Description:
Blueprint: H1 2-68
Amino acid sequence: MAELDLxxxxxxxxxxxxxxxxxxxxxxxxxxxxxxxxxxxxxLIEKTELARSRVEAxxxxxxxxxxxx
Length: 69
């Protein structure tokens, strides 16, 4: 009986080690994805700000053209 319990415990420990390894790999992958998404977000924010600035400049030029007419 004790040997059977020991085998069950050994199997459970092996399962837990496998689960820990899988979770470690998954965590590493998720951290990598997060870094990529943070960088992509920063790029998109920068592009949005540039586009907003350009649109505001165009609006200002159009308004000054209206006033000049």
